[in-house]
Protein 1
Amino acid sequence: MEAANVLELSLANAAALVRDKQVSPVELVEACLQRIESTDDTLRAYITVFKDAVEVARASEALMMAGHQLGPLHGVPIALKDNIATAGGRTTAGSKILADWIPDEDATVVKRLRSSGAILIGKTNLHEFAWGGTSANPHYGFVRNPWDPTRFPAGSSGGSGAAVAARTCYGALGTDTGGSIRLPSAVNGIVGLRPTIGRVSNAGVIPLAWSMDTVGPMTRTVQDCALLLGSVAGHDPADQGTAAVPAVYPKELNANVEGLRIGVIPDYFFRHLQPAVERNVRAALQIYQDLGARIVELEMQHIHGNISAQLTVEACEPSAYHQGWLRERPEDYGEDVRQLLEMGELLFARDYIQAQRYRSFLREEFLNAFNRSVDVFICPTLPFTATEVGATTVVIENGQEEDMLSAIMQFTGVPSLTGLPSLNVPCGFDESGLPTGMQIIGRPFGEAALLGVGQAFQSATDFHTKSPRFAL
Amino acid sequence: MMKESIVVQQIGAADIMSLARSAGLPLTADRAALLQPTLDAWLRDAKALSQKMSDLRDVSPVLSFKHDVESEG
């Protein structure tokens, strides 16, 4: 198969073709490395590329030819956000402070990927220490969006988002605290899942805010997302926060949405957003209705306040983790992250605890809605499409410039605070051809149902099959 | 009984220097001035949320889910 065609395969198709010995892991890895070579001087999606992946692929091929299949990802190249530890492989978290850190042990999710047969192709660029939403990294280069390299890829998992969209890997892991998987998935036109808090182990992942952090998959299709989630999820003795619940597998996805009750909060989900984003999410809701789903409009009295709660928690917890380095090596941080860490030290304990109490309160409100009247919620993932690289403000409406950090988390904050799972699914493009995303929020540990709802949309549309012009 | 609201006054650079000293965080006047607009906005919003939550005495912070296999969707 030609390299360009190989790169257009979904993760699930690539894995199936390797399993059927129709495509070699060496072909997949060489095609990905070639694509990285031709795109990454511009995109800056990778911090480290594993050139020895070809040797791993040869061993993977030999195993397959000898009749040994390691797991569902056998022979498939996967990328990792560079705040996820790899034994013997530099793990920088996008920082100067950890520029030379080589962990002794893999993160649990990396061990599981290797056990599933995945081939690690590289470590992706990110907002420094995952503390920010633009992936404008002063140490390893500003990540750029493959749909338009003058635009940002959002963040903090911006490198993973750009890497998947540019077809340099078949899937990637990101981490999400306030939206860091879903936001780059939305602006790069891919699928990204923030799993339920406790679904996936954080052992070996450099934290941002412990009480909201989670690892999750970023892929081109919902089915691929389920495949990658199934490979990394599950209880881990090394992370006592993980839950003992069964994993999710693609064969369990039920794409029948007949009778599905979709919750919409008009007063919040359709206010203060760019027209193209609203139009595309409303069109997606109409597609669900055409498929037999029902829209249930709700009010959430206490949803306002979520951005402040998120900023408070997300500022205080990193400042505790970085307390020592901020005093010993303040100049080694990028200016934006240094400011955020300094501010996090100056917030009040009372406000932090009240923010944590607000999270319980908000969660209860959403759980009550799930118990009473809805199966999922749908809203935009973020209120705007990709802004210019390096921008620190954004215009959403009326020509008014707003602070990027507060604006970007307008819709992703609810799942982050409540711990509910949420999925970004591509739902169209704006007038400039930039992708828009919708966010589907589900019940705790309801990833299988959530992915089924996403699968229903992808079965009825072709947005997920479009390639960025730059990557062609 | 009339509820006492949390008084929110603008936080200036000098206040930030004072807070930083209390936190043992070295911070120059220039840096305090850089932080001032954003920190002031954050503190105002945080205090508004704090005031709202102070009325809800029965809510405790619970941040994880019960590991209930039946909740699998």
Protein 2
Amino acid sequence: MDLNLTDEQHEVVSAVRSFLADRCPTDVVRASEPDGYDAVLWSAFCELAGPTIGVPEKLGGGGASLLDLELVCEQIGSVLAPVPFVEAAVACRALAASGDPGTRALDRLLAEPATVATFAPRRAAGGTATLLPFGPVARVAVAMDGDELVVVDGDADGAVRANLGSSSLADRDLRGAGRTVLADGDIARAGFGLALDEWRTLTSGALVGLGGAALDIGVEYAKNRVQFGAPIGSYQSIARDLADAATLVDGARLLAREAAWARTEDEEQFAPLASMAFGFATRAARRAANVALHVHGGYGFTLEYDIQLYYRRAQAWPLRLGDPRRGAAELADALFGPVEAR
Amino acid sequence: MDFRLGPKSDAFRAEVRDFLDEHLDDETIERAHRTGTNHDQEFHRAIGRQGWLAATWPAEYGGQERDPFEMTALRDELRLAGAPTDGMGLSVIVCQTIRRVATEEQKADFLPRALAGEICMSLGYSEPDSGSDVASIKTTAVRDGDEWVINGQKMFTTLAHVADYVFLLARTNHDVPKHKGLTMFLVPLDSPGIEIHPVHTVGGERTNATFYTDVRVSDHYRIGEVDRGWDVMTVALTFERGGFGLSEADRVWEQAVAWAESTRRPDGTRVIDDPYVRERLAVMRTNNEVARLLAYRTSFVAATGGMPGVEGSMHKLFYAESMTADAAELVDMLGAEGVLQRGDGEAPVDGWVEHLFRHAAVTTIYGGTSEMQRSIIAERGLGLPRSGR
């Protein structure tokens, strides 16, 4: 057993961390609202670690593992960076796995990594991917449309929908020009399932980053805010909630990394682990953001303090897939098999 | 990163499974459950003969020098099998402490017998008025020539009725701050003046209240320096917290899944197909996986030369609290029949879920309460100011 990162992973993580510390302070996040996307940041980020790093080397990508990507997502989540790394990385890998039909779109992304690509975690309804993450800005979108796994490559359209997490969300027509079918039937379902589990894993990483950073903000405030003559962090009812949240976030981080590791090292367990990681990271991030907002007292409720940025996103990000309770049912399917037909 | 324990642990795990097949029968498990005494001297001796009470010890003590990951594998298998291991756990804590603080003469006297599983140890810290605030104990030890005279009462002296010694903390100095006037003793439980009264618990486990009236022991039974008992106990607590793996919750989860998959309702549907059932089992599986990872992380920290203080507290807090909550969910999941107990032929999951519910509550209390763990996490982990308690 080895829970340490490799030297190479350390290097990547610290490069991404210092880039984001420099280029994505919270005023950049605020400035991106309500659109949820910063083109300048994304294009600079892609020069450091674009989403094609997760494409196999033999196809021209960087050959990064899902774990490498997950570590990057933790950093992105911790600063709430308004960039489509999670969805773009998943889309690139899904195109790479699709062979010939995906080549053209993939080649474009390899040539111009800052081209926005996205992935629809929810199945499309009637030819439209609704509330598609980064739909307002994505040129390339990978989605499950009925029995077909498709890629659309064309100009982005669709207006940004006002939403809780200030996420970049729009509806996207999948049946127009620029549509290519990557696979259909069982192959499409399997390909989509795998891509969705990768999305769950990387989103778990982002949520872990979000939760950890929210917790840090709450802890820092509790150390410095004095009431009744003492820092409020010395009061047990405050410390208790922060300790519980810290435990959840540590657990969620271990589980997200385990799921990402299992993608190549323990393939049979990958699907259940991805679902578990997603469910638990959702719980941990929300708890951490909730506690951290609460310890700020009235200030936490104001827009001036950064914790509100975390609080809204902790609730919103998991909903890109849908009701988390439904996630528990899907995990049950992965663990126990489908419900017996009657 | 590598989330597998590794080939060495896998090999040891297989060895432990073979051992359990041979040495642990259903009757032993059932007896421990029925009597509430989670110890079986014959099984304990078999573990000792196998060298596993000293599994991590250096060869000079006859130890096997196994690493923390192998220990995790050993504990996992004992838990999954439902083996009675209280005596093992308590003896290892006491022996590890003796190894670090006792004299050579004392080591020669106690360790070979204890590590062979010939004798068993119990812990005497808590008292009626001293739980988490252990340093406030009132039991006294007064020196009389080469002897000490012990008077007082201990609470929750689990296994005292079957053990050979009690690792007893006593006050030896009233003129100094409370932490600095304590001394540790290893008191033979057959000494005149000791009375052992059973205390029965909601979890079905039997523990004891033990009474000490003019109990005389020679200075040979004093472990560590006079008035330095707090330091001795701190060494022991380190071993009480570290090195966990799977838990009762993993065993009962597996039993509950097997039951739900093989049981049909009167309308012909499988229990596992009920959405309320499968979702609860899925959520519990997630919690168990997180608990396992937090446990294995403590082993990883220990294996790489660290002291897993905060990590150990996070594991203890999470496993105990989530198991308690999940056990309640599982009882509910079984519906009206969830209350049926082991022994009733119709009890779902042979009553193990109902038992887990009753047992789980104590895990948030013993070995350092959840509140104590949260204080450690908050102060040492998050760097929050020390609380006024």
